[in-house]
C-alpha cells in the first residue's frame, strides 16, 4: 500500500513534470502510429498529448484573458498549436498535428522548470524555523517547566543549559558562559556573556548554565526578523522579470491582432480567396510563435548550469546564470567566507630563555582541560609535541586558566589576568602583543611560576585563495568589492587588508547587511552577496545574486542563495561570472538568429513564397539551430 501512496505523493509534487513526460510519450506514440498509417490510434493519442501537455498553459492563458483582460504567450501558443492541428485535419496534412504537439511540449517543459524554482521560498523559511527550539524551559514558582516558544511572555524567566540553543532573545539574570553567535552576528570568536548581557535566539550556549529574562515578544526576536526579511526579499519581483512579463503580453497582443487582420482583410484588399487567406493566417500563427525565442535562452542557460556543476558551481536557476554575468558589485561576508571560520594559532613568540615549543607545550598542558575554542586551537597547534596534562586546573571565564604542570603553576590568559601572577610583562612582548591586537588577533599570554614564557596570537585563518580571487574579480571589471561582517573594526580591517578589499562594513546585524546590499543596488543595480551563515540569509535573498559556501554554509544560507560553491572554493566566483557573460553573449546571438528567421518567414508568408510545411520547417529549424548554439556552453 505504500507504493501507491508514494506514487500519488510524487505525482502531486511533480505534476508539471509528469504532464510534460506524458505529453512527450503520447506525442512520440502518436507520431509512430501516424508513420505506420494507423490514423485512428494517432487521432486518439495526439489529442491526449494536447490536453495533458497544454492544460496548464491553457488554464493560465484563459485566466489571464478573462480576469486581467490580457493576452500572454501561453494562450498564443495554444492557439498556434490548435491552428496547426486544425489546418492539418482540413488539408489532411497530419504532420502539422505533430508540429502543434511539439509546441505544446516545449511549453509544458518550461512550466515544469518554473514550478521547481517557485518552491525555494518555502524551503528557506522551513530551514530558518528549524534554527530555534520548539520549547523553552521556564521557571514557574521555582520549578522548571517546558512550554512552547509561542507561549512565552515578556518578563518570563527561562533556563538554558550548556550546549543548548537560546530559544528567544533575552537578558542574562544569572550565570556566565561562552556563546557562539557566528550564525547570527558573524563574529568569528565565541563571546563571553554574563549578567546584564543580551543574548539572541538561535545562538549556541557554551559551558555555563544561564538564567535569562525575556525582554521582548518571541516573534520580535532577531531570528524571527531574519525570517521575515528573507520572505520579503524573495517575494520582491526584480525589474528584469517585470520587463519580460510586459514584453510577453505585448508580443502576444501584436501577434493575435496581426493574425486576425491577416485572416480577414486580404480578400477585400488584395482579392485573395478565403482558403488562401486562412491558410496564410494559420501559417503566420505558426511561424510567428516564439518557440525559437524560447529555445534561444533556455538550452543556453541549462548548458551553462551543467558546465558549472562539473566545476563545483551549483546554479539554482537559469536566471541567476544570466545575472551573475551582469554583476557590477560584490559583497563578501568575512567569517567562514573570506576566512575558514576556524580558530588557529597564528604566531608564537617566546621570551629569550624559552623556545616556541616550550610556550606551546606549557599552554597546551592546561588548555587540554578547557572546552574553550581558543584552548582547542592551542592544543591542536601542540598536537605534535610531547606534553603532559596539568592538574588542579581552574578556568576563569573571559580571563584565563591556571593549573599545575611539572610541579609548577602555569598561567594562560589575557594580559590583565597573567599580571596577577607574574612580576612583570616584558616590554618587547607587550609591543608585539599590541601590534597583534591592532591587526584584530586575540593575544594569549603564557607564564610559568612568576615568569612570562611568551605570547600566542590566535586568529581566524584567511582562505588561501581569497586574495587571488579578489584580484581576479577586479581584473574582470567588477566595480565595487566590499566586506560585510559582524566582527569588530580591527579584525575586519585586518582581513580586508590581507585579501585586498578597500571598503569594509563592520559590527553589522543581519538587517544592517540587508541595508548595505540595498544601497549598493541603488548605485550598481546588479549586486552579488557571498556568505555562509544564518546572519547572511536576508542579504543573500535581497542581492541580485546570492552565493553560498557549500561546505561551511548553514542550511538556510544554502537554501536562500541562488548559487552554491560546492567545494568552498572562492576562485569559482570568477568562473561563474565568466560563464554568465558567455551565456549572455550566446543568448543575444541566438535571439538575433531567432528574430531573423521569424522576420524572414513572415515576409515569405506575406509574399506567398512559402507554404505551411516550409514555414514549419523554417520555424522548427530555427529552434533546433539556436538550441544547438546554446549547447556550446557545455564545453
Could you please describe the fold and organization of this structure?
By secondary structure, this protein is of the alpha+beta class. 55% of the residues lie in helices and 18% in strands. The chain is built from 25 helices and 22 strands. The protein has a 7-stranded mixed β-sheet, with helices on both faces. The protein has a 6-stranded antiparallel β-sheet with strand order 12-17-16-15-14-13, sandwiched between helices. Strand 21 (545-549), helix 23 and strand 22 (563-565) form a beta-alpha-beta unit. Helix 12 packs parallel to helix 25. The longest helix has 36 residues, at 572-607. The model is unreliable at 237-241 (pLDDT under 50).
Termini separation comes to: 46 Å
Describe the strand arrangement of the main beta sheet, using strand numbers.
10-22-21-20-11-18-19
Largest sheet properties: 7 strands, mixed
- Helical content band: 55-70%
What is the radius of gyration?
Answer: 33 Å
Point out poorly predicted stretches.
Answer: 237-241
Mean pLDDT over all positions: 81
Shape: elongated
Structural class by sheet pairing and helices: alpha+beta
User: How much of the residues is beta strand, in percent?
Assistant: 15-25%
Number of helices: 25
Give the tally of β-strands: 22
